[in-house]
Structures are given as structure tokens and as C-alpha cells.
């Protein structure tokens, strides 16, 4: 992103990402009507995202789709199913774009240096935390994981400075996780937070924040069961990078 998007521009860009399969067939006027924004906002937004304008954005999108044979089979898929498929693709694509290589390197170094590692997560994020726990233990790290709110708060008060806390949270607003991060921060313990909300309360108490992209679309609007795919992608990249760096340093 070349320039920071305003709230209306960010809304439009999120709308475009959620409906990207339709964009090649939409004129700027039709997109303006569908997204309820002005054509000027569309032009301004696409320019900020590195294109010369909406026409350039559409043309590049068309060219990419035409040359990308791996998605040709989607032409026969129901429109709504296609949107669901692309929703997941864009979450991954945007998460990869947002990842900072330097932050991954720093996080890997923290894992290497830490004698004890504590992983905290709640809800659906627990599945990712459990996978990280098993992999880190297989890699020889002394690692424990908790999803119990009382244990998280109590344990975080007792963690020693030499340890590392990894928190996995979609919105970064779960009160027990925020309390755990705050307790660790007060004790001088390093905390890595994997989240999709850079402005979350937990970020204030995190030494490092690995940020992913969360889609605004949910197929379960009545329940808080949004996709943790961005968190899963980040956790896998982090652990794969740790293995790569560990093997190189040991000469394997």
C-alpha cells in the first residue's frame, strides 16, 4: 500500500476483495452503485493501492485471471461457491502481503532464545495453539499451552522474564488474554501476538505483533466463529521458519 487508506477507502477496498470475482465485469459506475461510494473514491483508492486507476486495476485483474490456469475450473462453479473459494484465497494472499519478514526473523530468534514457552488462546484459536504446542515440543522446546481463562490470568503472573509468551487471538480483545499479556508485560516477559487486529488492546502489551488479514464476510453471522485461516497461515510460517533457521545454525 503506497498511502494510508481513509475509512471510506478501506471499506471500498474490503468490498472489492470480498467481490473480486465480479470486479472484472463491473464498470466503475456499477461498482459505485453496488458499493455505495463515489467514483472518485474508487479512483483514489485504486491509485493508493498502486494502480493508475480503476481501469488499470480491472485490466490487471483480467490479465491475471486469464493467465492463471489453476482457477479455470472455477468457471463452472456456482457463483456463491466461487465467492466462498475466493474469500479464503484473498485472506491468505493479503495475510502474506502484510507479513513482515523482519518480524518473522525476530520472532524466530525469540523462540530460539527462550527456555520456556507459554501459549495462550481461547475459542477456535485453541486448535492453532494446540498444533503449535505439539510442534514446538517435537522440536525440543519446553512448551505449555492453556485455554482456561483462570489459568491464563494466574499463570501469566508467575512467568519468569527469561520465558516467552505466544498469544493467538483473532480480534485481540478477549479480556483474559489481554490480562495475560498485561501480566507478562509487567514482569518484563517477551510476548508475541498473532492476530488480525493491529489496534487491539492486547497489542499495547505485545513486544511483537504478527498481523494477518481478516475478511469482513462471515457465513455464520449469528455466531462468533469467523475463520482463523490467517492465524493458521502465520503460525505455520513462523514454525517452518524456526525449523529452517535451526537447521542452518546446526549445520544440518
State the separation between the terminal residues, measured CA to CA.
38 Å
User: Overall mean pLDDT score?
Assistant: 86
The coarse silhouette is elongated
Helix content: 40-55%
The CATH homologous superfamily of the largest domain = Glucose-6-phosphate isomerase like protein, domain 1
Oligomer: single chain
Largest sheet properties: 5 strands, parallel
What's the order of the H and E elements?
Answer: HHHHHHEHEHEHEEH
CATH-derived architecture of the largest domain:
3-Layer(aba) Sandwich
Structural class: alpha/beta
Strand tally, please?
A: 5
CATH class of the largest domain: Alpha Beta
Radius of gyration: 21 Å
Question: How many separate domains make up the residues?
Answer: 2
> Order of strands in the sheet with the most strands?
2-1-3-4-5
**If you consult CATH, what is the topology of the largest domain?**
Rossmann fold
Tell me what the structure shows.
The protein has a 5-stranded parallel sheet, with helices on both faces. It has helices at 7-18, 28-35, 39-48, 54-67, 79-98, 101-113, 125-138, 149-158, 175-186, 229-250, and strands at residues 116-121, 142-146, 164-168, 190-195, 208-211. It is elongated, with a radius of gyration of 21 Å. The protein is 54% helix and 10% strand. The longest helix is centred in the last third of the chain and has 22 residues, at 229-250. It is an alpha/beta fold and 252 residues long. The chain folds into 2 domains: 7-76, Orthogonal Bundle (Arc Repressor Mutant, subunit A), CATH 1.10.10; 101-250, Glucose-6-phosphate isomerase like protein, domain 1 (Rossmann fold), CATH 3.40.50.10490. It has 10 helices and 5 strands; from the N terminus they run H-H-H-H-H-H-E-H-E-H-E-H-E-E-H.
Amino acid at each position: 500500500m503506497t498511502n494510508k487508506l481513509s475509512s471510506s477507502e478501506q471499506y471500498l477496498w474490503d468490498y472489492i476483495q470480498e467481490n473480486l470475482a465480479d470486479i472484472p465485469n463491473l464498470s466503475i459506475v456499477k461498482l459505485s452503485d453496488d458499493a455505495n461510494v463515489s467514483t472518485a473514491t474508487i479512483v483514489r483508492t485504486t491509485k493508493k493501492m498502486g494502480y493508475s486507476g480503476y481501469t488499470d486495476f480491472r485490466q490487471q485483474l483480467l490479465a491475471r485471471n486469464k493467465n492463471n490456469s489453476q482457477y479455470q475450473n472455477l468457471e463452472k462453479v456456482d457463483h456463491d461457491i466461487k465467492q466462498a473459494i475466493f474469500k479464503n484465497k484473498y485472506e491468505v494472499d493479503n495475510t502474506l502481503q502484510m507479513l513482515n519478514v523482519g518480524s518473522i526473523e525476530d520472532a524466530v530468534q525469540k523462540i530460539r532464545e527462550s527456555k520456556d514457552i507459554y501459549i495462550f488462546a481461547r475459542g477456535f484459536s485453541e486448535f492453532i495453539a494446540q498444533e503449535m504446542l505439539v510442534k514446538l515440543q517435537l522440536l525440543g522446546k519446553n512448551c505449555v499451552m492453556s485455554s482456561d481463562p483462570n489459568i491464563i490470568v494466574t499463570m501469566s503472573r508467575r512467568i519468569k522474564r527469561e520465558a516467552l509468551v505466544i498469544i493467538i487471538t483473532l480480534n485481540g480483545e478477549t479480556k483474559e488474554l489481554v490480562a495475560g499479556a498485561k501480566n507478562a508485560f509487567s514482569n518484563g516477559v517477551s510476548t508475541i501476538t498473532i492476530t488480525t487486529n493491529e489496534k487491539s488492546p492486547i497489542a499495547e502489551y505485545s513486544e511483537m505483533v504478527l498481523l494477518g488479514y481478516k475478511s469482513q464476510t462471515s457465513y455464520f453471522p449469528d455466531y462468533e466463529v469467523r475463520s482463523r485461516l490467517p492465524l493458521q497461515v502465520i503460525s505455520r510460517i513462523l514454525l517452518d521458519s524456526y525449523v529452517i533457521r535451526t537447521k542452518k545454525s546446526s549445520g544440518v
